[in-house]
Design a protein that fits this description.
The chain is mostly helical. The chain is 63% helix and 1% strand. A two-stranded antiparallel sheet has the order 1-2. It is globular. Keywords: Membrane, Transmembrane, Transmembrane helix, Transport.
């Protein structure tokens, strides 16, 4: 296919070659950095391992990209152009324009297959999105993690004794929270898709902050279980909602890196709340309250402020950033065009639904029975169990080892700091290698020797500092959750399916957390030999599930290649134009792995 007269070199970049000039990423991970924090989309993709939609032309079956003939080089260049901008093919562009019009897609007016931009323009826009969207997503996730994670600090202050509870009650409370969280995941996603995440997320935060504040009045087993249930029901679905909102602004290659920043909030919040707890727990006795009561009150009020601010910080989409309290919006008209078209060129399916369009029962059922995503749900179920009981019992174990309540909260900080570093490095490694399965599996390879040591090391518990060091190394593991969430989103290949599949993946994670709460039981303490034996088995199972997932997606892609390559170019074009198949079931889609 030839370029129109006087058109710059193929989108997205003017004056760039097939590989672009930004293949070396900026290693500054700060979202407020003055340069882009990730490789730009000009980096060459590997369709067989990173996921892609196949264009029907040119015929790539017999291309010899190493050939020096001008004919082959021209075809190779054209193929690279279509890889970066599938809408250069008029058949593809016409198909998706029709899809966007029928879906009443909110950004359809700025869809433009021919628009081009420079690498510098895109970097500047990415920095702006990082500062406005990603940064506030991190703040909101901080609000979530404060109110679902401060229970461990309360334990260090003797909350269980104050309320007349034991560790079994604590386990039951965690299970109630997780089951409630799990049950709310899918309904929350359906609400978010109907109302828009820009409306639903702030409502969620305000509602759970009220429950979090009420925990300062806990008076026994019943009130403890009730607040755990309410927090789970309201907080459930928040993470998939945030991922959906961020996907409106980022490409599939950029999203995992941003989600890695997002999930560093887990550890960052742990550090901040540990330092806050050191001060707030010293307030025990003021006004007759325990330190943990003051902690719930103060941290709940912080969450409430974040929730109220979120109503004004979350635009509905790239074309809806201007409003009465933000008259200039986030972007200029040209920047809006770049933001929308760069996302659509990466994943055309992001425009097949309106951002306030409800998911129909038919679409919901189609996503539920999409067995090609089940391997990712299986990973979510088992991959995070091995480290969870150790994390839940960290403060209780440190108190049992003889550390004071205040020192206990400070001792959790080192593992949290290292956890942030390993998470960012793991996600960056996945991006550099363009590999998801084997890189994400490094989490299991990190935790396995630590779990084996917990089971068989004779100095466990007797050696206080050795036990603390072992648990800290385990909890410094490289967290693969950001990779898995973005991976699930990519393989869903449809806005409606993406919303539901994100919820289903998170539900599988929460179900795994429920299982994790029954690993360390009261009869087995303090060494938890039976529990750690189970963790070793589950860790090995998780490695097996990762390997199976890799093999499965390689096999499925080969299946699709065989059928797709057997079609003529006319049949391929007709399929793209007329097929009613959506999501990952399309013949022209290849799974990321």
């Amino acid at each position: 296919m030839s370029q129109p007269p006087q058109q710059p070199l193929p989108p997205p970049y003017q004056g760039s070659g097939s590989g672009g000039s930004s293949s070396s990423p900026d290693h500054d991970s700060s979202i407020s950095s003055t340069s882009s924090a990730l490789p730009t989309p000009t980096d060459e993709k590997k369709p067989s391992s990173y996921g892609t939609v196949i264009s029907p032309s040119p015929d790539t079956k017999n291309l010899n990209f190493s050939s020096s003939s001008s004919s082959d080089l021209s075809e190779a260049s054209e193929y690279a152009d279509l890889t970066r901008n599938p809408f250069l093919d008029p058949v593809v562009a016409a198909h998706w324009r029709k899809v966007y019009e029928e879906a009443d897609y909110e950004c359809r007016a700025v869809f433009d297959p021919s628009v081009t931009w420079t690498e510098e323009e895109e970097k500047a826009i990415i920095r702006k999105i990082d500062f406005r969207a990603c940064a506030w997503a991190i703040v909101m996730f901080f609000a979530l993690q404060v109110d679902r994670g401060n229970l461990s600090q309360a334990l260090a202050d003797g909350m269980l004794d104050d309320l007349g509870l034991d560790t079994n009650d604590y386990n039951y409370g965690n299970v109630i929270f997780l089951v409630s969280f799990l049950c709310a995941e899918l309904p929350s996603q359906l609400l978010s898709k109907k109302l828009g995440p820009d409306r639903w997320i702030p409502i969620q935060i305000v509602l759970w902050s009220v429950v979090a504040i009420s925990q300062c009045s806990l008076n026994g087993r019943g009130s403890f279980f009730a607040t755990r249930c309410l927090l789970g029901l309201i907080e459930g679905g928040f993470i998939p909602d945030i991922v959906l909102w961020l996907s409106y602004f980022y490409t599939s290659r950029e999203l995992p890196i941003r989600l890695s920043y997002f999930w560093t909030t887990l550890s960052t919040t742990s550090i901040i709340t540990s330092l806050m707890a050191f001060g707030l727990l010293h307030m025990r006795g003021i006004n007759g309250w325990a330190g943990w009561q003051w902690m719930f009150l103060v941290e709940g009020l912080i969450t409430l402020c974040i929730g109220l601010a979120s109503f004004f910080m979350m635009p509905a989409s790239a074309v809806q950033t201007k409003t009465w309290f933000r008259p200039n919006g986030w972007f200029t008209d040209r920047e809006v065009s770049i933001v929308v078209n760069r996302v659509l060129r990466d994943d055309p399916s992001k425009g097949d639904m309106h951002n306030r369009e409800a998911i129909t029962p038919k679409r919901l059922w189609e996503t539920l029975k999409d067995y090609d995503l089940w391997p990712l749900y299986a990973i979510g179920l088992v991959a995070y169990i091995p480290q969870t009981p150790v994390n839940y019992y960290l403060t209780l174990t440190l108190r049992r080892l003889g550390f004071s309540a205040f020192n206990t909260n400070l001792l959790v900080i080192p593992s949290s700091v290292v956890h942030i570093i390993t998470l960012l490095l793991l996600t960056r490694l996945s991006d550099i290698l363009k590999e998801r399965t084997f890189v994400a599996m490094l989490q299991c390879l990190w935790t396995l020797p630590c779990i084996l040591a917990l089971r068989f090391w004779p100095g466990l518990i007797e050696n206080a500092w050795g036990t603390y060091a072992l648990m800290s190394v385990l909890l410094s593991y490289p967290y693969c959750h950001a990779i898995l969430v973005a991976w699930t989103s990519k393989n869903a290949n449809n806005v409606g399916a993406r919303s539901v599949s994100a919820a289903l993946y998170n539900m599988s994670v929460q179900l795994g957390n429920v299982v994790a709460n029954f690993i360390y039981l009261d009869y087995d303490k303090p060494y938890y030999h039976d529990g750690n034996t189970k963790l070793v088995v589950i860790n090995l199972l998780a490695i097996g599930v990762f390997l199976f997932t890799k093999a499965y997606y390689v096999w499925r892609n080969k299946q699709k290649d065989k059928v797709w390559n057997g079609l003529t170019e006319e049949q391929k074009a007709e399929y793209i134009k007329t097929t009613k198949v959506q999501g990952s079931r399309r013949l022209d889609f290849r799974f990321a792995h």
